[in-house]
Design brief:
- The structure is a single chain.
- This protein has about 250 residues and is of the alpha/beta class.
- It contains eight helices and 17 strands.
- Strands 2-1-3-6-7 form a five-stranded parallel β-sheet, with helices on both faces. Strands 12-11-10-14-13 form a five-stranded antiparallel β-sheet.
- Helix 2 crosses helix 3.
- About 30% of the residues are buried.
Length: about 250
């Protein structure tokens, strides 16, 4: 895979190049850049299949570069020292990332995933990611992998999320549901900052679709699709605190 590295720390570029040489022989590094202008020229010239993109650059960030490029005929693996906001935005769009310092096994897995991911799916993920940076948070989309590709769901159309072992089922406003190979904890992290609350070890609800809380039989909620869900003792205080804030 023709690859470029967009990173403003020289030591990090050297380390990543060496890791790729040792662990990912299918990757050929065709160039590096440390700022958005040089990166734009490099990408348009080389036309890489894969880009390792540092989120925070000296004269902007990796998101600015993607917006400037416009067309996404490549796959992206983000690199970050750690940014809670950035990671959530990336996870929502089902994109891959590596935390610094880069772990060899995680690098191998990310490259392997990129090599098998279709160009069409990669374009959808990147387009969704860029759109999410511009939209109101309540209208953002969640990108989820399915057997036939990547599917996008308006976050506000998700009524509730239910754990089923290592799988999770999303129940949607139109009555449909979808099951994905993610844990409920992963969704809890991804959707933090949106109107979602975990009310039970098996349930996360969208508060925009909450119809009522009934304080009997241990406590339960009724959603606007008439679903009844239990509220655990440990989560009840969190829910009641939020509901009390609704009072005028």
């Amino acid at each position: 895979m023709r690859t470029v590295i967009i990173e403003d720390e020289e030591q990090a570029v050297v380390a990543l190049t060496q890791e790729l040489k040792v662990n990912c022989p299918q990757v050929v590094v065709c160039g590096t850049a440390s700022n958005i202008d040089d990166a734009y020229k490099l990408v348009t010239k080389v036309k890489p299949e894969l880009i390792f993109l540092d989120i925070q650059l000296k004269n902007g960030n990796g998101f600015d570069l993607l917006t400037k490029l416009g067309a996404y005929n490549f796959k992206v693996i983000f690199i970050t020292a750690y940014s809670q906001y950035a990671l959530k935005a990336i996870k929502i769009s089902a994109l891959d990332y590596l935390l610094k310092p880069i772990d060899s096994e995680e690098l191998i897995n990310a490259v392997e995933k990129a090599s098998h991911n279709s160009s069409e799916d990669s374009q959808k993920q990147l387009q969704n990611f860029i759109q999410n940076q511009k939209l109101n948070p309540l209208r953002r989309k969640l990108a989820l992998p399915g057997s036939k590709g990547i599917f996008l769901y308006e976050i506000d159309t998700i009524i509730r999320i239910q754990a089923e072992g290592n799988y999770t089922t999303l129940f949607l406003k139109d009555g449909k549901k979808t099951t994905v190979a993610k844990t409920l904890r992963e969704f809890e992290d991804i959707l933090e900052g949106h109107a979602f609350l975990r009310i039970h070890h098996s349930h996360i609800i969208n508060l925009n679709h909450l119809e009522s809380y009934i304080n009997k039989d241990g406590g339960y909620v009724i959603m606007d699709n008439n679903t009844t869900l239990p509220v655990s003792k440990r989560k009840k205080s969190d829910l009641l605190t939020i509901l009390n804030n609704f009072h005028t």
